[in-house]
Amino acid sequence: MPTYLGPRIDATILGTASLLALAAGDARGTAPERFTYASAVSVQHSLVGRWESADHAVRLHLRADETYECRVAGRDQIARGTYRVDSNRIVLRDDSGLTTPATRVDDGALDMAGHRLYR
C-alpha cells in the first residue's frame, strides 16, 4: 500500500472554505491560475447609485453600505432597507421584511416589480 508523502493537514482545525481552497489549489493552498472569481464587491459597486423609471414613478437609491431607499409615486412612505447582490440579481428587503427582486438587463437597466429603472 502506497504511503502519502505530501504535507500533513489536520482537518479538524480547518473550515470548509480552507479545505476547498486546498483541494482546488496546490500544496501551498493557492488556487490555480485558470480559476478566476468575480468579485461581488465590484458587481455591487457597479449598481450603487440612483435609479429611476422613465415616468419618474419609481426612484431607487442603492448605497455602497448595502442599504437602499425607494420612493414610489402615490405612496407617502419611503421604503428603506437592505439589499443583497447575487450575480445580476438584487434582492431588496425592506424594514418590514418584504423582499423585492430586481434583475439587471442587457441594456444596463434594472427590472423591478414591473418597472424598468435607468441611471
UniProtKB/TrEMBL annotation:
Q: Which named protein is this?
A: Uncharacterized protein
Species assigned in the record: Mangrovihabitans endophyticus
